[in-house]
Amino acid sequence: MRYFCVACDYDGTLAEHGRVSQRTVDALKRLRGTGRKLILASGRQLDDLISVFPDIPLFECVVAENGGLLYHVPTATATVLAEAPSAALIDELRRRDVQPLSVGQAIVATWEPHEQTVLQAIHDLNLDLQVIFNKGAVMVLPSGVNKASGLLQALERLKLSPHNAVGVGDAENDLAFLAACECAVAVGNALDSVKARVHWVTPSDHGEGVVELVDRLIASDLTELNARLTRRIPIGRTTDGEEVQLEPYDGNLLVAGPSGAGKTNVTTALLENLCSARFQFCVVDPEGDYDELSGAIALRGSDQAALIEEAMSVLDHPGENAAINLMDLRLADRPLFLQQLLPRLLELRAVTGRPHWIVIDEAHHLLPVSNLATDATLTSWTGNIVLVTVHPDHVAKGALAMIRAALIVGRDPQATLTAVARGRGEQPAILPSHEEDLRSSWWLPIGSAPIEVRPIERTVDRQRHHRKYAKGELGEDRSFYFRGPDGRLNLRAQNLELFKQIGDGVDDATWTYHLQQHDVSRWFREVIKDESLATEAEAIESADLPASQSRTEIRQAIERRYTAPA
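Above: the chain sequence. Below: its structure as tokens.
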């Protein structure tokens, strides 16, 4: 289910001449029966609404006074969301004989043709207030207070996201809250200015239009309107400058390419765009590449159960994102961690629609092809997952089967495309002959021809995780192994500090062997992902220096860039 909440205007939408028909009430009851929540958004004062609409208990929250007051129906708790009306303004409007004049806890309201008098009084008193119109009604509220601001407070109270909300209204004061919802609907009697700015206009007027909306929501979750929605996620641009976009729902994506190809950069840029669009995400990060990701709370620990609970606590809040660093877990335990986390994420999605996106880095480790339990879990996954991997053919077949598109980055893209096809049991797409440009990538919607693209770039440079590489715990397959020319040794360095210590202690033949094979610069480039360090090490490897001197120069190159642990 995509839409977990419907926000309704009252007058002119649910109600005709101030009253809601029994047929409309019955439709609202059917909608509640699907597990969806209802929010009422009205310009009326709360007491007035309660007196004219006895079925308010169908709603979880009421946004009254055009966003100035929030009423939580189950607890009968009212919260004023704005400053009290200006006493000076009220006195001035009465002095100028503005009648009728209604004063609420946040709102001052009257009717046309008094709008010019109201505007002049606000100007003369130098007040920071706004005037909002609603089919002849004239409402005065503090700046920034409207149905949208009230709706966002209601959704936060219900722990729901605007991306999982449908709004329905009819008048100009509804435009703000309709724009805040993922899907905006106008009833057939709505103003033309409202109809022009929504995704669907119901054939019928007033409550009958709401009944039609309810019927379509229950029948299809409004999937037929997806093409009209505008909140798509940019991935890059084609060579012709056309933007390539990712569907915000049911948009499973694979990011694949060799080590050092820029997969983390592309994924970081994608996450930045998701954050800007306020889609909630959870990153499962085996190597700590996203610890400093802006907009996400970084989590880390060696207790799997506690780490999962901490992540779920973060994700319980719609505005928070989680980046879960698994470096403190043993390599063999990481797939099990994901198996335990995924059902919890699915459970949260089932009741809230969140997190909207799941990103799994090093997917060939966390979702290995040999893990049948993972494939079984993924059969109930509904979409919006990003898999990042250097070995797509080593990823669980159930995960690869869900992919709707692949972004292929880095050197030899044909080899990566072939690995994707091999993992999916398909014939590989064939790239056109062209001169390789490492700035370009290939966008492959499954079942379509590949398209050359320039991926989006992250807006903020991600700082190198110095402490992670100096002291952290790289996985077994990403560690450096001192084995020597005859393979007699098997000394593992899982971080740069251990690399320096072991490098200082091994015999000259072992040290020189690895330099001659360019193993050191390759590790710096492909695993540590530090091109500057790799380039300097490459020069040292090629200089034919005595072992003692090359050790010193490699050590100094590392220490100039990385902070040693305290």
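The two ends are 50 Å apart (CA to CA).
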